[in-house]
Amino acid sequence: MGHTVFVLGGGRMGLVAVRDLIRSPQIDFVTIGDFDTSRAQDLAGSIGSDKIRTKKVDATRHEDLVNAIRGSDVLINAIWYEHNLNVMKAAIGAGVHYNDLGGLFHMTKKQLELNDQARESNITAVLGGGESPGITNVLAELCAERLDAVEVIRIRVGGKEISEPKSNQLLFPFAVSTVFDEYSKPPVMYLNGEFREMPPLSGEEEVTFPQPVGLNRCHYSIHSEIATLPLRYGGVRDVDFKLGISEKIFKAIKPLIDAGLADSSTISLKGINISPREYAIAYLTSRVSNEEPVRCVALRIEVSGKKDGRDSTITATLVGEPSEEFQVKNATGLLTGIGASIVAQQLADGTISRRGAFAPEACISPGPFVKELAKRSLKVEVKTEFS
Question: In this structure, how many other beta carbons lie within 10 angstroms of the beta carbon of residue 286?
Fold first, then answer.
């Protein structure tokens, strides 16, 4: 008997996960749940698969969500990260395995507190099982396994637009609200053995990724990897995360951040309560292109430490490109959706068996996961250097 997966959110990443899931012989059917089911219905019609079902659901209504997902084997939460805690509680209440796409550090910390509840419900909740977090965490574990002691973990994510947008509007790689939060919220890094809050868009570094991505200007960015990786490896000194950003988006966002428009405190404007952050996101959204960016993405995870008494560095890289097979132009959506699908299938078939709430590095075996990536033409390159 096959398994069933409920994908909450019919956006780009959720729909890539659906395309991958329905190809698996172990998946009987996939339900796409969304407040607006039009995109899900369009996808079902274009693919012509009888494995796809759609359901209208409001993720903010707890009991409705519990009833909608009950009976599924796995829930993939592919909606905005600020809903993660409530959606995860619904999964626990329904007794359904859970996977989301990350919680930008602070949300992930709150979700980890539900570990006992998840275990008592006999489910596994994977916190951040997409691309980044997700694939990045698994590759960090892959590198760490090859060392006797881990001292430093550096995660770098870069991208490159393959073609210019048809208009002069901004082209965001994913949701405007998430991009703005990634660059405007003070990033937390683990430096010299302690968590430290850094200024937004600080830590500038030029990073050369494998082609076709190449050189990126990267900055510290708030991400879930930092919330969990330092807890995994005793003795680790530094864990940091930097994300590349296009010059056009950088020039649009930085003045807003510098002007204080990342503040979430509400102010009154002509009788309406609104925060500067809400205004900034609305402003950027009004100027964003509806085009899907044609974009390549590269992940670079470097883990340094000791092997047989020698200083050693293990580096894992992965490049994602636009895919006709998955009908996606933006490799961020490709890697995130495929990562989420692989995690969901491993939860469904018992490959991931540890019960409770965990980051990917704590419950996913890197070997089988990397093999699944390779089946989808996503090859991980690993290099070892001794000093």
Answer: 10
Q: Which residues of the chain have pLDDT under 50?
A: none
User: How far is residue 62's CA from residue 49's CA, in Å, rounded to a whole number?
Assistant: 30
Question: Using CA atoms, how far apart are residues 190 and 312, in angstroms rounded to an integer?
Answer: 20
- How many whole angstroms separate alpha carbon 54 and alpha carbon 246? 36
Cβ atoms 101, 343 nearer than 8 A? no
Residue-wise pLDDT for 317-355, tens only, equals 999 999 999 999 999 999 999 999 999 999 999 999 999
Of the candidates 273, 239, 279, the one whose C-alpha atom is nearest the C-alpha of residue 359 is 239
Average pLDDT, the chain: 94
Residue carrying the six token digits 């989420």: 340
Contact 107, 269 (CB under 8 A): no
How many alpha carbons lie under 13 Å from residue 356 in its C-beta half-sphere? 11
Cα maximum dimension of the chain: 67
Pairwise CA distance, residues 335 & 46, whole Å: 21
pTM of this prediction?
0.94
Q: Which residue, 351, 333, 355, is CA-closest to 343?
A: 351
Peptide bond into 173 cis (omega under 30): no
Q: How is residue 130 annotated by DSSP?
A: B
| Residue 155: exposure state from Cβ atoms within 10 A (0-12, 13-18, ≥19) | buried
Which residue segments constitute the domains of the chain, with CATH numbers given?
A: 3-130+333-375 (3.40.50.720), 135-331+379-386 (3.30.360.10)
